Batch of 4 targets.
Target 1
Amino acid sequence: MTQVAASIKEYLFDDLQRDESVYAVLDGASIPDLLDNLYAEDRPEFECLYRGELEPDIAEVAPYLVLLTPGSEFSRWLLLNGWGQHWGIFAIAAADFRIMCRHFRKFLTVHNPDGKPQLFRYYDPRVLRTYLPTCTAEEIAAVFGPISRYLLEDEDAKTVIRFRYESGNLEAAKLPLASSI
C-alpha cells in the first residue's frame, strides 16, 4: 500500500468510536470496473442506491453504498486507485447498513426552483465539498443524519477534508496526507 493510501486508511479507520463503521458512497459513472470489484471473491457488503431492477447500462453508472473494512481487498483497491479520481465520499456512522441506505437514498433527487426533479450527485466529492458550506443548519442536520463525519478528497487530493456537525455548526478540517500524489 502506498503512503497516501495508508494515510487515508488511518483517517478512516484509526479513530472509530464504539459501534462506528466506515461507509463509502461510490459513483459508478466515475469508476472503471466498479461492479467487477464489488462482485469479486472478497465481496464487501454493498447495495445500489437506485431502487428496483436496473438495466445493465444504468447499473454500471449508478451510485453504490459500500461497507468498508480495513483489511479487505476491496478497501485496498479503492484506496490505492480511487483517491484523487472523485470516485466517491466516505462517511463514518454508528448506524447499520439498512439505515445508511435509507439515509443516502433521500438525497438522490432534488427539485429545482421550478419544482422539476433532478439527480443530485452529492457523492461526487467535488459537489459535497462545495455544497456543505452553503447549507443552513437544518440542511446540514439532514445531510448528516446518523453520520458523525464525512471524509473526502480536497481539490488537489493532497489533503483529506473532514466535515463534522458539532453543536449546530459545520466544522471543516483539512488533514494532510503522508505524501503527495
Target 2
Amino acid sequence: MSVRRDPITGHWFFRTRVTYPDGSRGRIFGTPGVSGPWHELPQTRLGAVEAEQRAIMTARGGRDIRPTPAKEVPTINEYAVPFMDFYAAAHKPSSKRDKRQRLDAYILPTLGHLRLDQLRQEHVDGLVADLLARERNGRKGINTTLSVLSSLVGYAVTNKVIADPGLSYTVKVQDGELVAVAPDDVSRLEVAAGDARYRAAILLAADAGLRVGEIRALPWLDVNEIGRELAIAWSYDRTNALSETKGWERRTIPISDRLWSAMKALDRAGPLVFARRDGKPLGYDAVRDVLHEIYKRAGVVAPKMPWHALRHTFGTELARAGADIQTIRELMGHKSIETTMRYLHTTRDRKRSAISGLSSLGSGWAVASEPESK
C-alpha cells in the first residue's frame, strides 16, 4: 500500500515508484499538511492520496521530483584542505605556517574525525582542557589555536557547508605586563653594541618602534633622507620569507636625531639598512644571539623578548611624552586600538606610583614642619 500512517508520529504519508518520460524509474514520497509542496492538503488519508496523485502527475510531466540525497558534510579533517588551500592562500607565509602547525599538532588529532555539523561547545571546551594540560600551552597560545578553529568553521559557514553553530572560541587571558628597556639601558646597549649596524638596529627598535623582522627587511629605498622619515612596508619572518608588515599596515615614522646619526655611520654594502657584511639579509637567530651578547656586555638584564622590549620602549616613551592614542597606534603599526591602550595603562600606573610617592613625602614633610605646641 502506497499510502500509510506513521505509527510513531501519526502522520499520513505516501511512498511509491514512478516511471519518468525518459524511461527511468524512481521512488517518490511525501507528507501532506506539513512544510513542502503539499502543505495546503489536510493531514489525513485522503490528503495523502491527493498528494500522491499530484506527485505522480508531476513526474509523468517530465519533472524529476525524486528527493535530492542529503549533502554529505565533510569532517574537520577533510575541510582543513580547502581551508588551507583557499582561505589561507593569500595570508603571509608565517601565518600560513602557523595555521598548518596548529591544525596538525592540536586541532586535527582531537577534533578532526568530527563532521563540521557535529561540532559542539563541549568539543571546543575539551580541546581547551587538553591544551591547558600541556605545560607548553599558555592561554594566549590556546586562544591563537582556537582562532584557527574558529576561522575554519567560519569559512564553512560562509560557503554554506553548515549553519553557524554559535560556539565560543576564547578563554580568558590576563593582560601581560609590558616589558620595556629603560632609556638609560638603551644608551648602555648602544655603547656595548660596538658594531655600527647593531647600534642602528637597536635604535630602529627603541627610537622608531620597528619589529625585528621590519628592521631586517628595511631597504635604503624606504629611507627618506630629505624628509628624515622611514617608510615601513616589509618584514622578514623567522625563515627569512619576505612579506608585508604585520596586519598589512604600512606606516611612516620620523627619524630621531640619534637614530639619524647612527644610520649615517653605516656602510651601504647592499640594498638593506641592516644586513650582513656582504649585503645579504641577516637571519633571525643570528641577530637574536648577537643582541643577547650585547645585553651581557652592557650589564643589562635581557628580557624574555629582547628585541621586542626595545620596541616597547618606543611605545612607552611616546605615552610618557603625552602622545595621543591614535598617534601612538599609527607609529607602532597596531591593527587594534586595544593593543595600543596597554601603553596608556602602563603610563597611568607609573603616574599613580609617582603621586603615591609624593603623598608619602608630603605627609612626612607636614609632620616634620608642624610647629610644636606651646
Target 3
Amino acid sequence: MKVLIADDDPHVRSAVGLVLANEPGISIVTNTPTVDALAESVLSTGADVVILDWDMPGFRRTLEMRRLHADAPNCQVIALTAHPAERQAPFTPAAISLVCKYDAPERLLGVIRSLLDR
C-alpha cells in the first residue's frame, strides 16, 4: 500500500512517517505540507491512501475531496484532526475514517491495517 502524508506541520508528517516506517506492506511515497496539487501528487505517486490533515490551511474539504476522487477514485482518505469533537460531527463521506492527532498510534495503524485487509 502506497501512502501519501499531507499535513502542514512537519512534526506530524514526521511522526506519522515514523509510525508507518516499519509497518509491513506499507510504503510512504511522499509527504507534502500543502494541499496544492494534492490530486496530481496522488496520481504521480500512485498513492492508494492519503493521510490528510483535515484542518490544513487552504484546504476546502468539499472541493478538494471532489477533485481528488474525480482524479483518483480508488484512493482512500484518512482524515487527521486535532479536534476530537469532530468525530461526532458529520463530515464528507469521501474520508473513510477520522483519526485524532492525539490518539495512540495504534488507532491510525488499525485504520490502515483494515485497508490492507480489504
Target 4
Amino acid sequence: MTAVAAVHIALALSLSPLLVGTINRTKSLFGGRTGQPLLQSYYDLARLLRKGAVYSSTTSWIFRAGPVAGLAAALAALTLLPPGGGRSPLAFAGDFFLFAYLLGVIRFFLVLAALDTGSAFEGMGASREVMISALAEPAMLAALAALAHLTGSLSLSGLMGGAGEDGFIAAAPVVLLAAAALFGVMLAENARIPVDDPNTHLELTMVHEVMVLDHSGPDLAYILYTSALKIWLLGAVTVGVLLPLSGLDPWASLGALVAGLFVLAAIVGVIESSFARLKMSRVPVFLGGAAALSVFAFIIVYRS
C-alpha cells in the first residue's frame, strides 16, 4: 500500500461524517437557520457508542450481525477505491464489479436485519429499499461499463481520472453523462432527496429510516457511520470520474478528490434545499433516467 492510499483511507475513515455535516449545514444556510454544528455527526456517533443496545425478543443473531456486516463491507469497498488518479490498495481487473456488489452486501444485511424484526412496517421499508437498489444498480454498472470501454481499464483505478486532461476534453460527453448517472445513483443509494428524505418520520414515506427504527446504541452508530462511508465511496467515484486526476501529482490528486467530495456534499445540500422528495411512483422514472444516461454514454463510446 502506498502512502497516498493509506492517507486516503485514513481521511475517508475520519472525514466521512463531516460530509453529512456539510450537507446539513448547507441546508441550514439555505433555510436561513443556524442549524446544527458542523461536527454534529461526530457527537451523535460518540453518544450512541456510549449507550447500550436494546434487542427485541423476536430478533435473532441476524439483527445483531446486520450493522457489523454492513460496516465490514463498507470498509472492504474502501480498499478498492483509488486515491484520486492513483491505484487502490487492492486494485485488480474487474474490481468495479466487486465494489458494486460490496455496496449490495451493505444493503442486503440491512434489509435482513429489518425483516428479522418481524415488523410489517420495517418490511415495507425493506421492500422499497430493494426496489430502489434494483433500479440503481443497472444504472451504476452501465455507467462504469461505458467508462471501462472509454479508458480500456476494468479497474476503478483506471476508470477514475483515467482519461487525463486531454482525453477528458475529447471524451467530455461520455464522462459527463456517466458522472450524471453516478450522481443520481449516489443520491438513491444514500437515501437523499429526491429519492428519499433522511430526516422524515412520516410513516408512509420512510424508506431507509424505517429499516433502522429498532436499532439503538452502538448498532445504530455503525449504521450511521456506514451511511457516511457510502457517501464518501459513491461520491469519490463520481468526483474521480468527473475530474481529470490522472495527470496530477498523487498528493495533488488526493487533495483535489477530497475537495471535490466536499463540493459535492454542498451540492447535495443545495438540491435538498431546492427540491421536494419525489412520489414513490416517480422514483423508478428518476432512476430510469440515470440508467438512460448510462446507456447513452455507452452508445457514444461504443460507436466512436
